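Appendix B. One record, verbatim.
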Amino acid sequence: MTSSRPEGQVHSASAAAASAFSSVSRMDPAALLSAYDDQLRTGAEAPGVASTSLGPVRLVEFTAGRGFVTYRNLGDADPTRIRQLVAAAREFFRADPTIEEVEWKTRGHDHAPGLHEALLAHGFLPEEPESIMLGVAELLAADVQLPEGVTLRRVEHEKDVRAMSAMADEVFGGPVSEARANALLQRLEAGDGMEIWVAEAGGEIVSSGRLHPVPGSDFAGIWGGSTRPEWRGQGIYRALTAARARSALRLGKTLIHSDSTEYSRPILERSGLVKVSTTTPYVWRRAGGPDS
C-alpha cells in the first residue's frame, strides 16, 4: 500500500492547479527554471532558522553545527566583489565556534565570475555536482508496481526515524550519525511539514526519501533518496517518488524539485522531471588551523 488515498485519485484542486501548466510549459526547462529561481531562491530555502544578509547573499545557521550560503543571484558583482563576499561569509561562520561545516550552494546557470576561484582560495572545496530536476507533481504520481513483499509507509516515530537515518548513512558510505537522526526528529517535532517515507521488506527498511513542502510556493522538494544496493533496479525508489508526489498534491503543491545524483536522475526523468541546470556544493569544514 503506497498511500492511504485510493490509487488513481488526485485531489481535484491540486489537479486543477497542475493543469495550469500547459503540456509544453510543464516540460519546458526555461519556464521551470524561472519558477525555481523566483520561488525557491528566497527565504523559502531555509525557513524558520537564523539567517543574516550579506549584500545579495543569505547566511543561514542550521542545527547540528551547519551553515549554508544561498542567494537569488549575485547581481552585477565582479570577481573582486565576489571574492569579498566569500571572505566575509567564511569569517562570519568561522567566528561562531558551534559551526563545524558550511555549504556554499552554487548553480550552473548563475552569472558569477571568479566564484570558483574565490571559494577555493577561502577553503571551500567542491563536492560532486548534481542535476537540478524540476517537474509537475501530477506526472510523478503514477502507479508503480512494487516487488512482492515490499510495502511503503510514512514514518514519524523515533525508532523508525532512527532506523531510516542509519540505513541512509550506511548506503551513502558514512558512519551512522546520531546528530543527523536528531535533526530529523527535531524537524518532525517542529511540524514544518517534512514527511519521511520508507520502503520495507521483511521488517527491514530498504529504501527511503523525504518530502519537503516549501511554504509560500508551488513547490515540494524530494530529498534524501537512498536504496540498499541489493534492492535497486526494482522500481522501489520510483514508487517512493510517486508516493511523495501524491502527498505533495494533497498538500496543494503542484511542482516538484530535487537535486539528484547520476543514479537517481534517470529515474526522475522517467517519472517526468527534467534537468534544468546543475548545482555544486562547495564545503568549508573547520579544521582548527588559522586558515581553516
